[in-house]
Amino acid sequence: MADHAVGLPAAELSGGDAWAGIVAYSLQIYFDFCGYSNMAIGLAFMLGFTFPRNFDYPYAALSVTDFWRRWHMSLSFWFRDYVYIPLGGNKCGRLATVRNLLVVFFLTGLWHGAAWNFIVWGLFHGLFLLLERLWLGERLARSPMLMRVGYTLLTVMSGWVFFRAVDLAHALRYLAEMFDPSRWKMPGTGTWVLMSPEVLAAFGFGILLAWPSLPWLFDRLGVQRINRSLRIPEQRLDTYYVHRLPVPLLLAGFALACALLAGNDPQPLPLLSVLSYGECIQALVGANCRRRRPASPAAHSGSGPGPAGAGTC
C-alpha cells in the first residue's frame, strides 16, 4: 500500500491515496523496526545479555518530545549522552540549546542516510522539539489528551513523508496532496484493489496494537508479569517485565507467524507484534530463570545497578 502510493505519478495521486499510503507506511516502519529490535533483544537474552526496550509505544506519545522518549530509544540515548550533553545540553542558555538540538537532529537525519530528505526529516523533528521547548509544550499540556495525540500523530506522519519520499520535490508534492483541501479526492482504483480483507485486517490490528492495548488488557485480566530485572532500573525499559503468557499460546502464535511468513503473506506484522510484546523467547526462558533465582527487593522497587539506557539493539 505504501509503495503503491509513493510510486504513483503526480497526476494520478489523490489525497485519499496519499493518506492511505502514509498511514500504511507509519505502521510498516514501526512494526518492522520494533519487531526486529525485539528479535535482537530476545536472541541476545538467549546468549546471556540483557538489553532494554528500544520502543515504548511511540504512537501513543502526547508530544513530539514524548515521541522521541519512546522511539528508537537506544539511538536517542546515544545522541543524548555523547552529543547533546557534551555540547552543553540546555545548561548554556537558550541560543546554545537551540544550536545543540539542531545539531543532534541534523546528525540523526544524517545517520539514517546521506540524502537531503533524511536531513530535512531530522531537522523537521528538531524544529518541533524547539517549538515545544519554547512555548508549544505549555499549551499542549493544557490541551485535551485526544488533541495532543492527534497533533503528535499528524506531525510524525508528515515527517515520514520526507523519510519515505524519493527526494525533496517528491515529498513536497506528496504533502501538498495530503493537506491541500482542493486536492482531496477518494483513493484511486489501484488503492481500492489493494484493500483486500487481509490488508484491511492488518490495518485494524496494526492500529490497535500500536497502542498499549494488550498490556492494558492483560493487566485488567490479572495476568502476572515476570519479575523485574536488576540490570534495568527504569520499569518502562525492562524487557523482563512482561506478562507471563501460557507457553502453548506462545508456541502456537510462533508457529502461525512462521506459517504466514513461509506462505509469503505480506501482512504478518500485527501478529508478530503480539509475539514481540510477549517477548516470546524472554517469556519462555526468563520464566524458568526466575523460578530458579528468587527476586530481591530491589527488583520490585526498581533500584539496581546500571544505566537506564545501557546497551543497544
Describe this structure in words.
Helix 10 (197-209) runs parallel beside helix 13 (269-278). Mean pLDDT is 81; it is low at 265-313. 65% of the residues lie in helices and 0% in strands. The protein is an all-alpha fold. The two termini are 28 Å apart. It has helices at 2-7, 15-46, 64-68, 73-84, 94-112, 116-141, 145-164, 168-179, 189-194, 197-209, 213-220, 247-262, 269-278, 280-292, 297-301. The protein is globular and about 55 Å long.
**Overall outline:** globular
Helix content: 55-70%
What characterizes the major β-sheet? none
- Count of helical regions: 15
Please describe the structure with a list of short key phrases separated by commas or semicolons:
0% strand; single chain; 313 residues; mainly alpha; disordered C terminus
How are the elements arranged and paired?
Blueprint: H1 2-7, H2 15-46, H3 64-68, H4 73-84, H5 94-112, H6 116-141, H7 145-164, H8 168-179, H9 189-194, H10 197-209, H11 213-220, H12 247-262, H13 269-278, H14 280-292, H15 297-301
Question: Brief description of this entry?
Answer:
This protein is an all-alpha fold.
